[in-house]
Design goal:
About 11% of the residues have low confidence. The two termini are 25 Å apart. This protein has one domain. The chain is 22% helix and 13% strand. The chain is an alpha+beta fold.
Length: 93
């Protein structure tokens, strides 16, 4: 997966994927919150403000025309989601 310059501003502020994660990043939100935003961005439940999200070289949630990104219709986004799986583990493992 690549997140070249991807940045999302979820409700509550701060930045997420590509916006400087981890200790000392300047993002005051807990790491777990940033991870949830990352997962939501991959699944196109959060829209990115800039950059792009690619999985196996494929742009997720958008199509590119020249230098611009255009959001995919919901039907196409749903089609992409059927190709992506997430495995969640219990938070207290």
């Amino acid at each position: 997966m690549r997140l070249p310059g991807a940045e999302a501003r979820p409700p509550g502020g701060g930045t997420a994927p590509g916006g400087g994660e981890g200790p000392g990043s300047g993002d005051p939100r807990p790491v777990g919150v940033r991870q949830v935003t990352l997962l939501r961005t991959i699944n196109h439940l959060e829209k990115i403000d800039r950059g792009s999200v690619r999985l196996d070289g494929r742009l997720l949630g958008y199509r590119q025309a020249g230098d611009r990104l255009h959001e995919l219709p919901e039907r196409e986004v749903l089609g992409q989601r059927t190709q992506i799986g997430f495995v969640f583990q219990s938070f207290n493992l």
